[in-house]
Amino acid sequence: MNEIDFEEYRAHLRGVAYRMLGSLTEADDAVQEAWLRLNRSDVRDVSNLGGWLTTVVARVCLDMLRSRESRAEEPVPAAMAQQPAPSDPESEAQLADSVGIALLLVLDTLEPVERLAFVLHDVFAVPFDEIASIVGRSPDAARQLASRARRRIQGVPTQAIPDSGLVNQRKVVSTFLAALRKGDMQSLLAVLDPDVVVRFEQADGSRQELRGAMNWAKGATAFSYGFRFADAALVDGSPGLVMALHGKLFRAVRFTFGGDGRIVGADVIAHRARLDALDLGVLA
């Protein structure tokens, strides 16, 4: 097996590892470890090399997630608490956007084995009997792990919103986000109620309130670049936005909608303790 042969699988393996770990730097480390294990192994009798490599990367990622959990249980000096910036921030931003920032954030709340089962089966169609051999459980148990992860990822709206209403709200959120990214004031105002009320909870816990669509639109479009790292999500069961950098949630927005479908209220959350307590789901 040479480097050229391995390159045929690198993009796929990187995709698996990134969804498992949520960090491009760690994903590349996992792929590199798979390459090293490949070069130490006799694979002449392996009929499905891509599947073999996927299993290797999954095992490496599972070990990394478990190690991450054990480190989280230990006190961390303040100087070491900041997550290092990725070596290739542009690539990470593009990859996060293609996968879905909301999905990555919800995946990060799962147990390592649940995350593995969901990513391998639901994203990459790996059979449950193969997943079972990786996590050391039965195929039925592996199926249940993926099912639990799927329910957690989908989330449950706190209100009994009809499917049609949720679809419409998803469209409004998408329009809102696209308008902010482009700095498109007219499209932004079109989805905001003229008397919208926006409540801000800052990182230090202080609170502010702003009223009026034009006031919020002007302030929000001035920071349109930050919304490049945003995605639609269920935030405590309500449609909203999540914003993350390097896989870490730094702001969330929970919307309230009026009878005409426009946004009449928004809660913007940046306080760390409140962010950590949020129940997030993918707004499909």
Can you describe what's shown?
The protein has 284 residues and is of the alpha+beta class. It has 12 helices and 7 strands. A 7-stranded mixed beta sheet has the order 2-1-6-5-4-3-7, sandwiched between helices. It is elongated and about 70 Å long. The chain starts with a helix and ends with a strand.
> What gap, in angstroms, lies between the N and C termini?
41 Å
The side-by-side strand order for the widest beta sheet comes to 2-1-6-5-4-3-7
Question: Would you count the extended β strands for me?
Answer: 7
Summing up helix and strand content along with how strands pair, one would put the structural category as alpha+beta
| SSE succession | HHHHHHHHHHEEHEEEEHE
Low-confidence stretches: 73-86
Mean pLDDT over all positions: 86
Largest sheet: 7 strands, mixed
**Percentage of residues assigned to helices:** 40-55%
Which fold name is given in CATH as the topology of the largest domain?
Butyryl-CoA Dehydrogenase, subunit A, domain 3
CATH architectural arrangement of the largest domain: Up-down Bundle
Count of structural domains? 2
What share of the residues does DSSP label as strand, in percent? 15-25%
What is the overall shape?
Answer: elongated
Number of helices: 12
* CATH class designation of the largest domain: Mainly Alpha
If you compute it from the alpha carbons, what radius of gyration comes out, rounded to the nearest whole angstrom? Answer: 21 Å
